[in-house]
Amino acid sequence: MEIPQEVLSVMKKAKKIAVLTGAGISAESGLITFRGKDGIWEKFDPDEVATPGAWKKDPLKVWEFHEEFRKAIAEHEPNPAHFTLAEIEKSSDDFTLITQNIDQYHQDAGSKNVIELHGNVWRVKCLKEGTVSVNKDVPMKQLPPYCSCGSMLRPDVVWFNEPLPPAALENAFKATYECDLMIVVGTSIVIYPAAMLPSFAYEHGAKIIEFNLEPTPISHLAMFSFFGKAGETLPEVWEKAR
Ligand code: BJW
User: Strand 119-126 to strand 132-134: parallel, antiparallel, or no bridges (unpaired)?
Assistant: First the structure.
């Protein structure tokens, strides 16, 4: 693969790195992405399984969808792209990984400074008390699950039309404004507010390097886009840049 010297130089010299990841980074682990051919939204209607309205109408159906997701995550594991980002963090003084993913593979691969914009499917939230706890039961002992207080638990993820966790969003914007390099991996850049981050970084003077199978709405802003599987391209680029 041809890797422009300029890209290696930017990666080497970057003082503050922000990374934005999406479902594509976990594709080579064996997880299905949301959009495109054979994507999750081809099989499921998001209005039926990933909105507050869906939850109100049929919490069991929503839980069954998330239960499938939990099973798939448990059956697979992080891939070389996740591990490479953890390595980049180790050799960087200022590194923030902003992910839209709910699978926790970044933390499993060793990443430390991770901002989860859309929550984490291993956490559950009590609807009455608002308390959040970790539940890694696969399968769940009971669907839908209940809190000891008697109230139903929901997955601690962000559905459409729900606000993102304020602290996560604030920290993501801060990292975006401050970084001199943003690496964008495996996201279609269509879901807001996450989709705004690369252009904000660009407007604040950061270089953008993208890893995706195909062009995205931010490819024209990128100093370079590596088109291919991130589990192959990202390790190869980092090997040369480190
Ligand atoms: C590879 C690869 C390989 C494959 N290597 N690459 C109009 C304008 C602007 C905004 C809106 C609007 N109408 C509605 C909105 C808001 C809405 C939105 O953005 N809608 C769009 C449809 C326009 N956003 C929201 O509702 C958000 N909340 C919000 O805005 O709140 C405002 C508010 C404030 C106050 C009160 C109330 C509300 C919330 C968004 C939540 C998103 N949730 C999901 C589901 C979580 C799972 C669950 O339910 O449990 O999050 S949707 C889904 O999309 C998931 C993802 O995180 C997210 C992004 O997808 P991602 O990661 O980019 O995946 P894909 O599949 O799209 O792309 C994969 C990419 O990988 C592709 O590019 C491939 O090519 C690539 N790839 N293999 C490299 N091997």
Answer: antiparallel
